[in-house]
Write a structure and sequence with these properties.
It is built from seven helices and no strands. By secondary structure, it is mainly alpha-helical.
Length: about 170
């Protein structure tokens, strides 16, 4: 068991990264949902809702909710993707259900980053540092937002929702 409880404060710079990464992953999972069949749509919407709500909670609180189990929770979407790949590969019906690689891969990278960052914070077990104050937080937020946007925006464009957003109002 880790030395840090799930209710310990997390450094503001770390919270900024976690919140932005969860926001990016949640947006990608939400954008993947409309192109999926109903059972997978429900799973993706649930995952997206959880990631988006957790992102807001991380921004709002010094003590992120469910932080002690975030490393495991953040890997759930990867498990769903892996299970889908196994079921698709072994299906005898001849139809393989697949999610677009780029958006799901980007969301998976963000989820892995969340899981590994939370695991390091939990393992370290030290309380949040307050040095640097607002400048450190804003810098971490800006760098995190740029990195996540660089990964998320192109991936959003590769989803059915992203393609539909670009082709709206184009009459040829």
């Amino acid at each position: 068991m880790s030395r840090m409880s799930g209710s310990a404060p997390v450094a503001p710079a770390t919270r900024a990264f976690l919140a932005v990464a969860a926001l990016g992953a949640g947006l990608l999972h939400a954008a993947l949902a409309p192109g999926a069949p109903l059972p997978l749509l429900l799973i993706l919407v649930g995952i997206a809702a959880g990631e988006l709500c957790w992102s807001v909670a991380v921004f709002a609180k010094d003590r992120p909710p469910l932080f002690a189990i975030v490393p495991a929770l953040a890997l759930v979407p990867l498990g769903v993707w892996a299970a889908l790949a196994v079921v698709g590969a072994t299906a005898s019906a001849g139809t393989v259900l697949e999610l677009p690689l780029v958006p799901m891969g980007a969301a998976s990278l963000l989820d892995l980053a969340i899981a590994s960052t939370a695991a390091v914070v939990l393992r370290r077990g030290t309380p949040a540092r307050r040095k640097g104050g607002a400048l450190r937080f804003v810098s971490a937020l800006a760098v995190s937002a740029c990195a996540v946007c660089a990964l998320t925006i192109p991936a959003l464009g590769a989803t059915d929702a992203g393609v539909a957003a670009v082709t709206v109002h184009h009459h040829h």
